[in-house]
Amino acid sequence: MNKTPTPRTQVSHRVRRFLRRTLAVSRKEVAHVSRDPMTLYVALGLPVVLLLIFGYGISFDLDRSPLAVVDYDRTPVSRNLRESLTSSGEFLLAATPDSADDVDSWFRKNEVSSALVIPPGFAANLAAARSAPLQILLDGSDGSKAGGVMGTMSALLRNWAAGIAGPAAASPIEARVTLLYNPGLKSSIFFVPGLMAFILAIAGVLLTALTVAREEEQGNLEQLFATPVGRLDVVLGKLLPYLAMGIVQALLVLAVGAVAFDLPLAGSPFLLAAGTLLFLVAVLSQGLFISVIAHSQQVATQIGALSSLLPSLLLSGFLFPVERMPMPLQVIASIFPSRYFVTFLRGVLLKGSGFSVLWPNLLAMAVFSVLVLAIATKRFRRRVA
Amino acid sequence: MSDAIIQCRNLGRSFGDFHAVRDVSFEVPQGEIFGYLGANGAGKSTTIRILCGLLAPTTGTALVAGFDVAKDPEAVKRHIGYMSQKFSLYTDLTVAENLDFFGGAYGLSGRRLRDSIDKVIEEVGLQDHRRAMTSSLPGGRQQRVALANALLHDPRILFLDEPTAGVDPAARREFLSLVRRRVATGVTVFLTTHYLDEAEYCRRVGLMVAGHLAVLGTPAELKAAHAPGEIRILHGNSALLGAAVRPLPGVHAVQSLGGGIRVRVDATHLPAVLSAARNVAPSLQVEVAEPTLDDVFLAVVQGGLG
Questions:
Q1: Does A369 map to a domain?
Q2: Are residues A255 and A150 in the same domain?
Q3: Residues A81 and A45 both lie in one domain
């Protein structure tokens, strides 16, 4: 520090004292963390574990879905159809019952999740360019899986039909659907940005939710407020080290996303960094706010877990589109920063959208942070004095 | 205006309907050890927290080190050191880390901070425990860490809220001698305690009863005013002696001891009391004792002065 006594204005003297005190709080916080392996785990281990579990766990992609094929036609064409379905990797030929009546027992035993019935005369119908119906049986007890199977199978069937009949013979009306940004419609690509928001929200809120509540419980706040330390010193001093941890955490999650789930970065890395930083500040502030209003660590943990988990899981657009929610839920959803971060991440990672498109999300996260930090700071001293 | 370093005028603090402190006025000149006595819940801690700027008074004013505690608590805090009732440093940090943090909280840094830490650690004799985890230290040493912490920024006033509660007598004595060494350098100490022997170290003593400052003065003044008379310890059967002595005129207080009674009586009635005692205990042994603050405390509390 500056040792030569130079004339300073009152203001710069105050700023210097403020910075010293803030830095002292930060240093202390680092010392606490270094003594508490649990915090490090929440900061660095938990996000990666969650990302891997959820990333691999939540997938609507078909992978070797067991399929039964009942081939009444028994022609080279029908065999060719069967092979083209099962060679793609989405379907696995699990059974070839002789009769459609037998399919039911395979479904009941849970050994197949879909069945294709090729009626007699299928090849002949095709050759004569007549309508050639096929029957597809689906296990409706798992709705989302059935939907996925149906979509995938109809796509494969269309491709196959186009392949053998040639483009000239294609049906007169054909919808040509092109999926943008996620060509394979891999669900992981779509989920991982939402998942990141979810994980960073939980880990971020939990990091700071205990810091003030613990000090209150242990009587440290009394001693702390007997010093000239201001509430803003404490709030900012506590925020900074956790923000540093949050940055490492976010980088880790992005790296795992890129390596394990082939997550692209279509947009600007600087924009990604700016948005992520804002989101981290927002969730850490949320945690601090909870820590200030809760009077015990137990209450802080519960409020922290609920207020980070539920909105970022259900109201962020991660799993369910916010636009289709009833109005009151949309209003609640628009309070929490994860909603904006999910939109932001999908934009910058998948679509390559720029600042001109994504700025409202950044603004919303900034407003949330400032408001929550201001309330946390305001509530702080009042409770002690 | 007096030059007292602590000035309270009609200070009061209520929590809802409960008046924890009411209409308390006193002054403490610089360099004095001021003892604040009272039972638990009498308003000692509330007073000390108001004076430290931790709690706003609901009525009255208090000037500490020249600053109004209600209007400029930050300035007050810069000039005082505070040790709260419960050990409230960070137990998961080492001694040095605690001092480092609180020094920073007082705005110290760099060379000045390091020098201050070295100085107070040496002052309280914890050089060998700098790197010790605070939680691993026994109670007496923890108190000394807290004292070092309160002294770090060279405060003009030390507020000690029952600093020696739960500490063994040897550690208590050691602690008080550390405090007195600071007082010799001009520091003012405001001490709350319910150890009445500790109050004997104080230059002046205030006694709180149910939120009121009931009496205030030097220990000698208080004893003269509130515990007048002669103190005698009469050895023998305490039940018999007590029954014989208690109804006599001039007897202010009778306490049963293990092997006898302790009686406070006006000098003029002393011979009558002694002869009455000899009637029930022919071979009576009499011991002369001095009045203590216990006598004052009992007289004030029982006398309904509160």
A1: yes
A2: no
A3: no
Same domain, A209 and A275: yes
| Cβ distance of A27 and B77 shorter than 8 Å | no
The percentage of chain A sitting over the pLDDT mark of 70, rounded to a whole number, equals: 88
Residue A282: the pLDDT is: 96
Judgement on whether residues A254 and A355 belong to the same structural domain of the protein: yes
What mean pLDDT comes out for the span B230-248?
91
Strand partners, B192: B36, B161
CB contact under 8 A, B91 and A223: no
- CB within 8 Å: B82 and A223: yes
Q: Residues of B with CB below 8 A from A218's CB?
A: 88, 90-91
Is A219 part of the contact surface with chain B (CB cutoff 8 Å)? yes
Find the CATH number of the domain harbouring A99. Answer: 3.40.1710.10
H or E stretch covering B26: strand B18-28
- Domain's final residue, options A141, A169, A197: A169
The string of pLDDT tens digits covering residues A288-332 is: 999 988 888 999 999 999 999 899 888 888 888 888 889 999 999
The 8 Å CB, 24+ separation contacts for B168-176 are B168/B139, B168/B140, B170/B140, B171/B139, B171/B140, B171/B143, B172/B140, B172/B198, B174/B140, B175/B140, B175/B143, B175/B144, B175/B147, B176/B201
Asked if residues A29 and A211 have their Cβ atoms less than 8 Å apart, the reply is: yes
Claim to verify: residue A38 and residue A95 sit in the same structural domain: no
CB pairs A-B closer than 8 Å: 87
- Write out the residue range of the structural domain in which residue A160 sits: 65-169
Q: Dihedrals φ, ψ of A76, to 5°?
A: -55, -35
CB-based contact, B15 to chain A, within 8 Å: no
* SS3 label, residue A59: coil
- CB contact B105 to A (< 8 Å): yes
**Cβ-contact A219, B77 below 8 angstroms:** no
Q: What are phi and psi of A39, to 5 degrees?
A: -65, -45
Residues A302 and A370 in one domain: yes
pLDDT tens readout for residues A25-42: 999 999 988 888 888 887
Would you call B77 an interface residue with chain A, using a CB distance cutoff of 8 Å?
A: yes
B6-223 maps to CATH 3.40.109.10: no
In whole angstroms, how far apart are CA A145 and each of A113, A153, B26?
9, 12, 80
Q: Is A17 on the interface with B (CB under 8 A)?
A: yes
In this complex, is the C-beta atom of B154 within 8 Å of any C-beta atom belonging to chain A? no
CB contact under 8 A, A222 and B103: no
B228-290 carries CATH number 3.40.350.10: no
Domains in chain A, number: 2
Q: Is A3 on the interface with B (CB under 8 A)?
A: yes
Could you tell me if B96 and B137 are in contact, meaning their C-beta atoms sit under 8 angstroms apart? no
Token digits of residue B68: 């109004």
Cβ <8 Å between B84 and A25: no
And the tokens for B254? Answer: 């009778």
Q: Which amino acid is at A293?
A: I
- Last residue in a domain, options A110, A134, A169: A169
CB contact under 8 A, A223 and B102: yes
> In B31-109, which residue ranges form alpha helices assigned H by DSSP?
44-51, 73-79, 95-105
- E strand or H helix that includes residue A372: helix A355-384
What is the predicted ipTM? Answer: 0.82
